[in-house]
Fold these 2 entries.
Entry 1:
Amino acid sequence: MNKIAIIGFGGAGYCAAEEARKCDPDARIDVYLDTDIGPYNPMLTTYYVKGAIGYQDMFPFGSLEKIEEELKLNVFRKTPVVGLDAAEKTVIRADGSEESYDSILISTGASAFVPPVEGKELPGVIKMRTAEDAVFLKQYLSEKKPKTGLVIGASWVGIKVLEDFMSCGMDCTLIDGADWAFSIAVFPQTAQRIHQDLENKGVKLGFGQMLDHIEQESDGQLTAVMKNGNRYTADTVAVCIGIRPNVGFLAGSGIAMNRAILVDEKMRTSAPGIYAAGDCCEAYEVQSGQQKNIGVWFNARKQGAVAGANMVGACKEFGGNALLNLAHYLDYDFISIGDVSACTAEDEVYEYEKGELYIRAVRGEKLKCINMIGTAQINGIMKNFFVKSFETEDAEMDVPTRCHLLANGIPAEFIDFIGGKTFD
Amino acid sequence: MTELEKRIKAKIPGEDTGIEIKHSLCAICSPAFHCGLDCYVKDGKIIKIEGSPDWPGSKGRVCTKGQSNRDYVYRPDRIQTPLKRVGARGEGKFEPISWDEALTIIAEKLNEVKAKYSAHSVAFYSGHCKWYRPILHRLCYSFGSVNFGTDDSTCFKANDIANKLTFGAGAGPNTPKANTFLGWNYGGYYAKHMSVAGVRALKERGGKVIIIDPRHTPAVKNLADLYLQIKPGTDGALALGMGKIIIDNNWIDADYIEKYVHGYEQYKALVQNYPLDKVCAITGLNADDIYEAARIYATNGPATVNFSGCTQTHHINGMQSTRAIHALIAITGNYDRPGGNVPGGVSYLHKNGGFTTREKEFRESLRPHDQLRIGETRFPIWDEYCDEFHAVDLIRQLEEGTPYPVKAFVGLGLNAKMLPESDRLLKAMADNLDFFVDADLFMTHSAKYADIVLPACSSLERGEMKAYEGGFLAYTSPVIEPQFESRSDVEWLCDLARKLDVDDELLKAGYEACCDWIIQDTGLTVADLKKSDMPVKVPTAKPANKPGTYLAGGCKTRSGKIEIYSEAIAAVDAKYGLNPLPDYQDPLYDQNDPEMVEKYPFNMVAGVRLPHTQHSRLHEAPWLRSLRPDPLCEINVEDAKRLGIQENDPVEISSPSGTIYAKAKVTHKFQPGTLMMIHGYTEANVNNLIVSTHLDPYSGYPGFKSARCTIRKYEEA
Amino acid sequence: MKHVFTFDPDKCCACSACVIGCTDQNDIDLAGGEQCFRKTYDVEIPLQDGDVYYAYLSTACMHCKDAPCITACPVGCISKDPDTGFTIYDNTACIGCKSCAMACPFGAPRYRKEDGKMVKCDGCYMRVKNGMKPACVRACSFGAIDCVPEDEYLASGSNKACNALIDQLNLRKKI
């Protein structure tokens, strides 16, 4: 009988448990949780805050109790795992007790990163990652009714928190240490349009400055003091600089890591019998052929399912992974596919703009990065074609796909640029 | 959602959902189809349309247009009440009045004109919808006017007349028994959707499909073994050239010609003028393709020609071109033969059910003979073969007032956009008519010129009699109440007959009584038909005659034979300059002077079918309009490039008779030098570009599908 | 019973009867700018040899066996109908985040104008469960689209399943 452990129970952990149960009805599946709430989707927190969904909707798989019963799991609530003996495949609990398994999945996810600056604990300084964060912010907004908000970090979370603020009618300022928003994913030309849109919507912007500390004014307002001396005062300050994988407990375990846990296509870590999936791992990415941390819900679920199956003896692989950043906020959407940092001055550039639609793409021998604004309807097509262009030599675009792109206002020249020639 | 809510949302018929299927027919397009409909009705509203699987003919199939019946019936611009004009003609200002008031005014005004001028000065006219025509026709004659006219003047009738001239009867394709399908301008998919299955079946059993069309259509892609992309309007030359090849190779059926064909020797002499190289030059085709088409047609066993309803006859050489194609049928012995082209009758309203009715007698027996009809002396062939005035001559008679003035106009679905120089026609009506009434479902461009506008209802809101293939007759029941105050046309026509107190007891007895009279020989009555919500088998219906029966009895032509040399044409006064032989003329022969050629280098093909339009009636149907929001003029890629025109650019298209504005659609589907555009848009009415004298002298039909014009990119000021 | 949508590109003419059938069935406000779940294409694709390929197509949700949209949806709106195997949805909790569109290789999800929620072709699964054909299939006069039980499809040896479309319509193979 397979005996497995799942450490951390988000999208990856849940899908691992589900798949393992499907493949092995008799396996013993132990699940370790820091909290006592079921798997939820961190991406939904800001939607909960603005009232787009109810609290329960953040938990797409249902309650922990229901999952526990349906998947026949042993759930260890509020039982953090503090260490791992990789060679023995043994987990070490906070109380010092240990348990050995046939295989172990690390699916501990990631946490919001708040830099260790002075004032970060002041009331009115908020962060956003967990369901708890969401409950807090929702309550805070409804009780304190702040009029002004400062968002530090033009990240995917930052922009959604900004959207929450805007939906409360708050005056907002968005600042970031980089020279433009979403700097790890978008071209400056794309960012310029994103900035313009935000400014049109009344958002004040301040880029290229790092947070030094936060002070409280005499009237209770908060002021973020930047390293360059700039001061931004608001009723509330959201620190959304980024997230960090939850891998601290693995120190000394010997498991190979970069910023997160390195895994192969089968979601195996360097230690036999130990797997990792979701936001805490780095899986192979098609463009670079290297392992990268790409924290999106879809990956977490897919990776979890692959790991879960493999842990009980199946042989599945996770593939088709590309760098991907999708943002959808304030009736605006953009996507970045591929690695913007891989682009060089020698590369070929395609640019197109018509009305709300903007496309900028760069290719060397192969495609490198595509930015598109206002193309939600075709993002999946583009992403799939991008991945295909690395997986298959001379990937071609099929006729329906080409037709679909043309019908959505994508110029034939762009289709040709990305290598979508249907005949040569 | 509960299971029941899901069922209701999915529109599943049943007692629990309250959704009932009611049967009716779609009258949006040609009466040759009128496909059966399953109308899903809930709380008196149609919520879904499907083809009715057991309906004769259509057997569950409906086209894009038919599928949109809900969109059509509930168009937001339905006319709600009878209306009386309060603004200027064409301005569109009306006030609501009652039906009784409207009919009283109409009766008074018509009688006034009758008294002041004559009954003939009142023209009765029917637009595209044809179902009420027997009643309107009879009302016209009962009233005493000789002037009953319809959109037949630009529709299928020229084809019908050509058939009658050559064969004395119809010449429909007998695809099920053919080895070769010669699709002459065959589009199929967008205009005659039910025909496609038969052509596909022929292809699947190893038959050959040849398609001759200036445009690369889905039929070309999906069905054609051989495709001849002909220059618009040069079909007559191709047919004569093919005739020469067939004769030169002795692929003719000499016995058949001997027995059944009149004028073969003259024809043989005529085709000598069409050697292959000359035909290639005229048609833009290559010699091998022409030869191959002739060879396959003549030597591959039974071969049938498909004639498009009016594509060919919308050239000013169209009647003769059609007859030139007829000659191919004649010399290869493919008329009234299995797998060839076969005669067929009509039971009622363009449908052959294999039984006879008294439609013709009902319509024509009261015809006055004391005056010339509109167009009678201008188009003698038309007048001989069609019991209607020629609507194309209306504009002239209105403007000139000769040989007598037209002073009142009773229009049902009048659509001036179906006639050349539409706006000029409407102006002539506005300037010269004392009274003009129009009935329609929608406030159309033409209806805005009327003094009284009556709200008509759709086929789904009325009961009507209809014949179907396979020996069926139907009398439909309304599936919903007429919208607003709209009424079935026949109801108010019979009411009007009573108001006018015409000397016609049958008409005054109402539509059902008239139907009973018309079908008195079928063994059925309207009461019998109304018992079923599906078409009923007619006891007297007989299967079609065996091929050869018609020829054996002698053709209903003057010579009793198939007339390549038409004695009927020969009998027309020489002053008309008509040729009894189907010789070829350039489709632009009246527009070819050097100045015209330079100023208007393009050839406009107007009225190219779109799958989701029917004349103008669906242009404003919201779902369908959204499939193509803007009027588009198609232009070949090379021409577009040369003129700096890109996809969706605004363009200005001009001819000697007008200018319109549309957006460009750049295409490879036809050759350079041609433009193609669908008709019927008020804001971009391509028929305003068709000069009203650019007509086929045989049929009187306008040259919609070859007319000189020019195009340029239009920079909006 | 599991069902399979089939499409035969040699029978399609892009007449859009299927689009109107779908619109009629699903009360889609086409004129108001909503997009039909099914789309047709009449597109000319110039080839390098100077010839032109005339594409006439009708596409909608492919009802993928392992549908990526199901995995991608953060709120779990999308699921498989156990009877028909169609990819169905309940958009009550939909947040309009467009993750499904990003996952879908075919561009099948649509977003309602009024509230931004996702809507898509559900294969008319309720009709199919009630022994009826999907609306688009009923609307096709040419037999280009069909929906057949999976066993019947497998027995037919056809390769016209919609989710095999990509291979079939690859032009290089075609020409």
Entry 2:
Amino acid sequence: MAAITPSEPVSTSTQEIHTKKMWKTLVGHVPISSPFYQFHPVTRLYLFVFLGVVPLFIFVPEINFLLVLVSMALMLWGRADLRGLRIYAPMVVTVAIFMFTVVILAPGKDPTYTPLHMSLITIYYQPVFFTFAAYWRLMAMLSGTILYFSTNRERDMLVALRAVRLPFVASYVIGLSIRAAGMFMEDFRTIREAEQARGLDTKAMRISDQVKLYVMYLVPLFSIALRRAEEISNALFARGYTVTGRVKGGGQRRDYIRSLYAIRTRDVIAIVILISLFVGAGISNLFFNVFVITDSPLNIYLRGVLNIP
Amino acid sequence: MTALIEVTNLDFTYPDGTPALFDINLTIRQQEFIALIGQNGSGKTTFSKCLNGLFKPTTGSVNIEGIDTRDKGVIKQMVTKVGYVFQNPDHQLFNQNVHDEIAYGPRNIGLSKEKVEEQVAEAARVAGVSKDIFSEHPFFLPKGVRQRVAIASILAMRPNTIIVDEPTTGQDMRQSVEVMNFLRRLWKEEGHTIIIITHEMRIVADYAERIVVLGKGRVLLDDTTRKVFANPDVLRETFVEPPQITRLSQSLSEYGLPHDVLSVEELVAAFKK
Amino acid sequence: MSEVVVIQDLEWKYSNTKEFALRGVSLEIEENSFVGVVGANEQGKTTLISCINGLIPHSHHGVYRGSVQVFGKEVREQDALELATNVGMVFADPESQFTAMTVEEELAFGMENMGFDLSKIREQLDWVSDITMIGDLLDKSPYDISGGQKQRVAIASVLAMNPPIIIMDEPTSMIDPLGKQFIFNILRRLKEAREHTLIVVEHNIEQLASLSDQMLLIHEGKVARMAPPAEFFDDPAYLVERGIVAPEVTEFAYRLRELGQFSADIHLPLDLDNGIEITKSVLDRQHS
């Protein structure tokens, strides 16, 4: 009987590779080809920092709203999986409900607040608008983050971190933690199935019991993680890994993966633009008091209409 | 024999759009010992999870002792009919001690306290879990014992059908024989239907009565163990090889040796003739 | 031929157990040979190989007596880097030995530790992805591929570092038959190239028997038997008592020899082809 030779087709999963448009990552999917990949991961990391931090300097909701649109447009341009955005929808709505409920029911006391009498309740204009501005700041940061994780793989992140001279050990620990998180999620899924196979109907449970359930998951999750931690440390030992990143022969450690990416002119230009914008926004805000809430056209308009000084 | 599980025109597609099973029709009867075999990615695990309602059919139906798995709120009824033992016992041991572990299922299905204790004692006895370790934490037990606790925790719900995912993976010969003999006893003496998912053909030849071969999400062969292994050409397409001794006998058919031996014993006997 | 591993009177006890796991092991392994290691679980197989790759005593605490030399130097006195240069290790669970986010990084990681320069890394990467047939996986995430593919990546990442000794601890125990076949084909190629010393722990006795130059049975922390496979399987009762069954063709020939159907001086077959050949010759003689 003929032995099965390695040249035969392997499995369906190999064929899938060629038809797939997306790579799987821990937090979702990234496109296999995207104009973003024309830029070095470090440039993409700068973009992430820019989109994530700049909203902190800006308290004009209109501008933050524009930043959300910019992130969305970049996602579209970068061929990211926009359907993946759906999973954030409940969060976006829940956060809004939570923030506004709190500020309407417990606005705090300040003599400068302007009360607006509605039919049943009294709301105060200033804290509500403040919350509105804060919400859009949050949304701008969130969409920057989603953009980053839907166009960057874990590997890009690590290359970027090493490119900005993060010590090898630190980037390695980050990488390992990401991997561990992946296994953790996989285990979590299996454990939930195992519970269901023992007659647990989560849909029929009260919320308080569901919370208790999560505590219960910790037992198997940690026992598996403990057993695995030892295996991973053995694997590191067997590969000759030293915590200091020291290599055999004592020479300099070569970074193969980093060597696959080159920083090109377009990266330099993009980084210069991003840093200038970043510094510009920071200086304008901190030293010249620009981009503050009183600059908001909507704020000015509403105050005019509602006759608030 | 009465039918326990009736699978009709089953298709299954994962929520992310990956199709996994196509048009499966199958009847599983009382007191059968079935081996589910096929390559990884053939749909074995997906199919087995449809058999206990963990996965719901995309189209078609799975009927377990009169209950359609697509109906709402039937989880509790279903687990008393089909038990599922996961490959890694660590995934299904989440209680603080062995007793609570075994009692977890019966408590979930809302049995009275006495009934829970009765079924726990019975399951522990059958699975060979000593009462002396009832207060120990499952995490600190050796792997073989953890597996027995996992099986006991399923038995305690008294399901008619028990599905065991790779019962012998990572076990040595003696441990494999022990767990397989135990499953055989559940089948023969206690009247359970046993379904194992495995890659080890020697185990299949020694224990299973019926083989279901899956490939690319379809049932390729479904027959008695002897007949399936006597059919090496179809098997080869699924990358499954009969046991070595079967292949030896088949290669010598020109000398009148049978096509369907399942063990060294049988071939020695045939040879003597 | 020279010995690359020499173990003398090795005893080892883990600090958290009462009993010694190894109780006086002495053996020698020849350069570029293939050693198949078998034995029931918990008898000391994994402990023994941990003593060769240095996990014992470097990563475990316990009582260590006797000597383990790799290339003439005590394992105790070598550091992780030196050991990894000499001894590569493939574990049973491929998933748990991955440390990187893509297959390519996984392969590069060990080589970077070895201090290879970039051109050497590139060269090794090509060679190793070819021999283990993972060229089309390099860009993928190690958790997005099948079990068999994972194990091939694990083997590739060790081969890439080019250690003269490679140890594998049950490399096929977690994968399906086709995946297993791939791994054994890789092992066969490596064996035929005779450029590495291979020490393989494996439950799949049928494949192991036909690959091994020497079979090693570990029982109760001791070497119960170490011999070329044909000799190794010549006393099945002894092996069964220690939890090992011979390949079915071997057992079959042995049984017929006991019954006087096969002559007493036949060489026991170790694989199917060999078994067919021997049985045929006996049958032919009977017919004529």
